[in-house]
Every structure is written in C-alpha cells, then in structure tokens.
Amino acid sequence: MKVYAIEKGYYSDRHIIGIVETEDEAEQIVDAIKGASWDSDSVRYEEFDTEQFKNKRLIFEVTREWNGSWHAEFDEYNLFDNYKDNTCDYSDHYIIYADNPSQAIKIAQDMYWEEQAKKEGLI
Q1: For the chain, where are the alpha helices, taking DSSP H only?
Q2: Per DSSP, what are the bridge partners of residue 45?
Q3: For residue 92, what are the contacts with CB-CB under 8 A and spacing of at least 6?
Q4: Nearest 10 degrees: CA dihedral of 33, 36, 40, 45?
Q5: Quick check: helix, strand or coil at residue 67?
Q6: What is the pLDDT of residues 31-56, one digit of tens each?
Q7: Cα dihedral 98→102→108→113 (10° resolution)
Q8: Burial level of 5, CB count in 10 A (0-12/13-18/19+)?
Q9: How far apart are CA 34 and CA 24, in angstroms?
Q10: What is the side-by-side order of every strand in the sheet holding 70-74?
C-alpha cells in the first residue's frame, strides 16, 4: 500500500505534518497549506510504500574499497529496486539483499572471491 506524507520545512527543520492514503488528498492538502504559508516552497508530499519491508529483504549497496576494506550502505532512496537478485553491477560494487550490513558484506565477499577463483581457473 502506498501512503503520502505531507512535509514542511527545509533540512533539519523538515518534518511530517500528516499522512494520507491517496495522492489526490496529498495534492489538495499541499495546495491548501501553500496558500496559507509564507514559505510555500517548503510544503510538499512524498510517496512511501508500506510493503517495502514486509519481505524482510533489505537492499544494500556494498563496495570493495581500493584498500581492500568493505562498506555496506542501505539503499534508502530505492535506487536499486530494479535488481531482483544479488549482483555485481560493476567492478567491486555489489547490490545485495540481506538482513543487515554484515550479512550483505559477507555475501558480496563470497561473490567476489568466487569470481576471483573463476578468473584463476580454480573453479
């Protein structure tokens, strides 16, 4: 289910002032608030999907750094929703479904070392 959060403010002052179930409602409320607000540019709505976490598969962007360390970051902007499986989308950069960052890094490392073994003809 999609919901629409009506927000006001900028940067650290940005806050949710209400949540509605349809985009039409959100547009009407934003328009009404903009008409009665001196900083009307700060009023907007944003769509959220309430089903996002039901499958408990979080998407992490995992990167192998130049020094060999690994870094995992949660895909909070849904940039990688089009990936349905764990994948290496380019060298040392992985899109991983996992329960937490540590698990995401471990999965990416396994993928990395398997690819290295294939390159060396070991598997």
Answers
A1: 23-35, 101-119
A2: 6
A3: 63, 64, 65, 112
A4: 0
A5: coil
A6: 998 877 676 778 999 998 887 666 66
A7: -140
A8: middle
A9: 15
A10: 70-74, 58-64, 93-98, 87-90
- Look up residue 10 and give its amino acid: Y
Residues 6 or more apart from 9 whose CB is under 8 A from it? 15, 42
| pTM (2 d.p.) | 0.60
Q: List b or e across 37-54, with b for residues whose CB sees 16 or more CB atoms inside 10 angstroms.
A: eeeeebbbbeeeeeeeee
* pLDDT band at 12; cut points 50, 70, 90: confident
Give the other-Cβ count within 10 Å of 98's Cβ: 21
Please write the tens of the pLDDT for every residue from 52-111.
666 667 899 999 999 999 999 999 877 887 888 899 988 899 999 999 999 999 999 999
104 CB burial (10 A radius; 0-12, 13-18, 19+): buried
In 3D space, the residue among 76, 72, 82, 65 whose CA is nearest the CA of residue 103 turns out to be 72
